[in-house]
Amino acid sequence: MAVRQRLAIVLAVPLIRRVAFHARRMTGNLNKRVFGRLLLGLTAFVVVSALLVTLIEKPKGSAGEFFYWLGKSFYWAVSTVMGSGQSEYVDTPGGWIVGWLLVLFGVAIVGSVTGLLVGFVIDFLIKEGQGMGASGYRDHIVVCGWNPTARELVEELSTDDYERRIVLLDDVPKNPAGTDVYFVQGEITKTEDLKRAGIEDAAAAIVFPKDGSNESDMRSLVSVLAIEALAPQVRTVVEVNNPGHVEHFRRAKADEILVTSRLTSRLLARSALYPGLTEIVTDIVSGGEGSELYRVQMPTAYVGLAANDLSARLRSDHCATLLAIARNGHTYVNPPEGFTVEAGDDAVVVAESLGALSPLQMDNALD
User: Fold this and answer.
1) Domain 141-263, what fold?
2) What is the pLDDT of residues 355-365, one digit of tens each?
3) Residues 31, 28: Cα–Cα separation, whole Å
4) Of 97, 96, 137, 98, nearest to 13 (Cα)?
5) In what order do the strands lie in the sheet with 292-297?
6) Domain-by-domain residue ranges, the chain?
7) Which one-letter DSSP state was computed for residue 237?
8) What pTM value is reported for the model?
9) Fewer Cβ atoms within 10 A, N terminus or C terminus of the chain?
């Protein structure tokens, strides 16, 4: 069991999974019938060589003695093909000829294997650089599509306390997100490209429209449908251009839908009535200096506390300000005085950092 667990850990390493993907891709193009014939020919050549050397070189005796020498000759033939055979094993002209043929054959095999390995490494590097590989990550975030909002998102995620690997999937010729983001070149609506981005093992997918058109919304909608079909457990968040399309995305079972224009207009309206709100909200939701917005798991010790007591404990223990409590898919913003914390609740807080608080796991987050 321990060996299997260690093997599973090794096979789960992203680099190993990428190499395995390219190996499957390359071997998938091989003619298996031709490859099988070559392997059968190599085996037959080594067996015949071992048999000839045994008949020519070794003493004739009982059947048991013959098979003993045949086994040793077979080992010598394989070693000679691999370039490490003992030349003193044969001492007759017939044995020398067989040995020379094995050496020549071995040089051809070693050259072929070396060329294959070099070709594989070159192909691996080229395909990875072009975004034609597979991420190999688990519990990562897949960014589907690229626009200015996506650029800001990548910068924000790179500064967050809750670190996650990021994979970008888009049909651009090269990686626009920088070296810290794994790039997969492809279409966000295609199953094979989503699989290369590791959507089935991802924690979340964020879908962005290419531009502000209705056509981009429809492309995003198809992408959400594809993600839900492949990995319904993955949390999908989508940016929508047209508020009239929100209902379509809800039917597609997107977990969270953000209409950027609606959010911006409402924030600007509130800022017109209450000056300074834009700066405050921007500081809370953005990384860098100052306090930020976090959704965290409720510490077990806080279960049973009233809302006011919880707020005081969060402030005294973690320098965090309570904004809301989420329970069974419903969020209670500014919970009333009689509200009591129950097991399984999580909290939305404003704090300078996570500190000792544990971020809410995405696979446990409630819709």
Assistant:
1) Rossmann fold (3.40.50)
2) 777 777 655 44
3) 8
4) 137
5) 292-297, 346-351, 321-327, 330-333
6) 11-129, 141-263, 291-364
7) E
8) 0.63
9) N
